[in-house]
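Before a computer can learn anything about folding, someone has to put a protein's shape into writing. The three-dimensional part falls to structure tokens, numbers that each stand for a local backbone shape. The protein below has been through that process, and both of its lines are reproduced in full.
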Amino acid sequence: MRPLLQSIRPYSAVQLDFHKVDSATVIVLKNDHGVEFEVPLSRWHFGLMVEEKFGAALGFCVALELTPSGDSTLEVVSNALSSQPHDLADVIAASPGNVLINQLMPELAYQGFSILKVDNGWSNAAHEVVNNIISTVGCAINFGPTRAWWRRNRFCRISEHRRGNRVSCGARTQDDSTCSTSKGCAFRSM
């Protein structure tokens, strides 16, 4: 079945979703004095915005919350529009070849899109989130069904790890990877 709103050119439609990492994880933070602190988490999320036509990753956000908030959604959109280097954007670039498109081509900074496809999750449907995105980007927002991961095949493909581990895209898996950032923060599964 063909989607009702099809992508006819790059940046015409983008998908935004959050995925839950439901395995025990330790975040290692390093302060200015070089002291490392280990913070255990039972659950965290990452948000990703994907361009639908070619599958490019546009924006990324790590949400260290039990449930992603409206601020997390706005952070993903802000990260997709801005060409400024972000601390947490380094997490997605921990493996060779995993980069955001605006890191490769800064000329795409503040490139708008026509349709933002999201699910009916609380963080996406909040009035402040919808109003801010429409006012800033000027796009239409398409609310799809919740838990319909098969609608987001581009999103699921991008969220796979290079080693073949899939991060919670409709199926439960274990992720034993370690990702580190250049700002003194590391994620490690327990």
